[in-house]
Amino acid sequence: xxxxxxxxxxxxxxxxxxxxxxxxxxxxxxxxxxxxxxxxxxxxxxxxxxxxxxxxxxxxxxxxxxxxxxxxxxxxxxxxxxxxxxxxxxxxxxxxxxxxxxxxxxxxxxxxxxxxxxxxxxxxxxxxxxxxxxxxxxxxxxxxxxxxxxxxxxxxxxxxxxxxxxxxxxxxxxxxxxxxxxxxxxxxxxxxxxxxxxxxxxxxxxxxxxxxxxxxxxxxxxxxxxxxxxxxxxxxxxxxxxxxxxxxxx
Length: 250
What we know:
Elements: E1 6-10, H1 17-30, E2 38-42, H2 45-54, E3 60-64, H3 81-87, E4 91-94, H4 97-102, H5 107-119, E5 123-128, H6 132-136, H7 140-151, E6 163-167, H8 181-198, H9 201-206, E7 208-211, H10 220-224, E8 231-234, H11 241-248
Parallel strand pairs: 1-2, 1-8, 2-3, 3-4, 4-5, 5-6, 6-7
């Protein structure tokens, strides 16, 4: 069975609620006829409810960029998966390299968040990736394996259908550098092997693995032509209607 491509836009800390609504109105109109792939936009938490409402009857789903490992409590500044679910959000990005670096998200913490996202019947995009120093030291596979094992600790086979893995080499995020399609596919194939080892070959075959790292309209076709690349987690290029629309319609 062919895996359904998934293109997700991570808006990071851009776009006010008003800007977000105007953006998705335009995007909705541009992409209304796209049926054969999953489209996700991930605005800031503050804009999520307005974006959900604007996209309610469209073919575009809404995600957000992080969620807490508890559903409520004395966690100032955090938002729980239960709250996102009530707002109509469907996907949560977990373990993005910026959160790993700037907010001290460890694999153990990401694992706790993932379990809570799944408990709330939401879907997750789990990010893994190596730094430039780790790649140059030949440690890419070792780093990726540790991240996948840590993030998926205690995650059951039945949960995998609600998880997408995003391979995002840290050295290619916001730098303009991109892993070649062959380099990206090589790591995707390795990740698929890890899923097969940890679960089974059917789970590995069905697992969708996105590439993230300076994805642009100019390179999306070459990336998507690779056998183990099932989509893209798009950063800067997702902030403009025309460029994100072109990526979705690769």
